[in-house]
Amino acid sequence: MCTPDIPGTTLFDGRQARKGYALNKMCYSFNEAANREAFVRDEDAYCARYGLNEPQREAIRARNVLQLIEAGGNAYYLAKFAGIFGLDMQDIGAQQTGLTKAQFQARLQAAAD
Amino acid sequence: MARILGGITTSHVPAIGRAIARNLQQEPYWRPFFDAFAPVHRWLAETRPEVLVVFYNDHGLNFFLDKMPTFAVGAAPVYSGGDEGWGLPVMASFEGEQALSWQLIDALVQEDFDITTCQEMRVDHAFTLPMALLWPDQAWPVKVVPVCINTVQFPLPSARRCYALGEAVGRAIRRWDSDARVAVLGTGGLSHQLDGERAGFINKDFDLQFMDSLVQDPTWATQFSTHELVEKAGTQGVELLMWLATRGALGPAVRCLHRNYHLPISNTASGLMLFETLR
Predict the structure, then answer these.
(1) Domains (ranges, CATH) in chain A?
(2) Which candidate, A60, A33, A79, places its Cα nearest to that of B89?
(3) Mutating which of B84, B158, B195, B226 best tests the A interface, going by the most A Cβ atoms within 10 A?
(4) What is the end-to-end Cα distance of chain B in Å, rounded?
(5) pTM score > 0.80 for this model?
């Protein structure tokens, strides 16, 4: 297929799904509270258990969503990672767009006009 | 034979669950969203559906990338929610209508839909939150059949294919040897994008055109490729596939009884439509 890229968008296709498998599998495990606690207790050991590669480990360490996507992360699984820190989707949106949360919320509100 | 009374389409974002858990329905931010369900509540009280077929997309509660079905049909006696990573309260479980599950499975495979069947299946916020919007007391008066459509991993099924799936589900319901009153629920959308520098993308013009089309020209959106839908509605806005399947199931003759469009809730433009089928 030859389709133009959509700016600022990474489609979670087979390439991403292969690249991000370990990272997404770890984030999927955060559905369970005990696993979230285990991650918080010993982040290095938890990441090692899932076999994250270095870019994935670094993106987790940096809590950086764009880096996590670049490393193969899928938005739905990453949302479970963000949940550990009590971040909501507007925190995540603000981080990715380089805005403050208030600025990001204002941008959403502006779409109503 | 069973009868389809009508259908409802609504957004399902997790923030709705937080608003319910914290009892924020009448806060200024949430009120325009929650209050719009009053006509739906009245319609449900009047028509009293007994069985609900629900088109929704799992976000990583039941399915992981190890096995990712394009279309999955629930055939379980009971469906439960679960912790999705945010520690929100888990709602009461949902009783399955297994006879209709197998009616759908048999009919869909007969019509060349290569579905996955699930005798055990957990349902996530895309299923549970719309149920709580329809029945805020969370005492479910219906038995359910969940139909899950993949929107996690591309390639996604096309809009055309999802509409056709809905049509086939509708035919199967109408041929079900039962006197049950059935309704259809489709959840997701409307335009939103959670990921990337384009996060926060919302397209009001497209959403309103899409909602109009479901009444006037229901296959309008099936002209678009998945890529075009992402461009117009955002990476998560493609959940409008659930709306298309629902509309397909209702058959050609419907009347729209109620609609609401309000944004933003969380990062999403919320939509709500209520259709009744005409004989």
Answers:
(1) 14-86 (1.10.700.10)
(2) A33
(3) B195
(4) 14
(5) yes
The single residue listed with the structure tokens 């193969």 is A72
User: What's the rounded Cα separation, in Å, for the pair A93 and A98?
Assistant: 8
Angle between helices B204-216 and B226-233 (to 10 degrees): 120
Spell out the CATH class of B3-277. Answer: alpha beta
User: Closest Cα of chain A to B211: distance in Å?
Assistant: 16
Residue B190 is encoded by which pair of tokens? Answer: 């409307």
- Spans of all domains in chain B: 3-277
Q: DSSP readout, B149-182?
A: E--SSSSPPPHHHHHHHHHHHHHHHHTSSS--EE
Type of residue numbered A67: Q
Contact criterion met (CB below 8 Å) for B30 and B100? no
**Mutate which: A1, A3, A9, vs B, most B CBs within 10 A:** A9
What pLDDT tens digit does each residue of chain A (113 aa) get? Answer: 456 799 999 999 999 999 999 999 999 999 999 999 999 999 999 999 999 999 999 999 999 999 999 999 999 999 999 999 988 889 999 999 999 999 999 999 999 98
Nearest chain B residue (CA) to A18: B65
Cα separations in angstroms, B237 against B24, B138, B151, B225? 25, 27, 10, 13
Instruction: Kindly give the pairing relationship between strand B94-95 and strand B268-277.
Output: unpaired
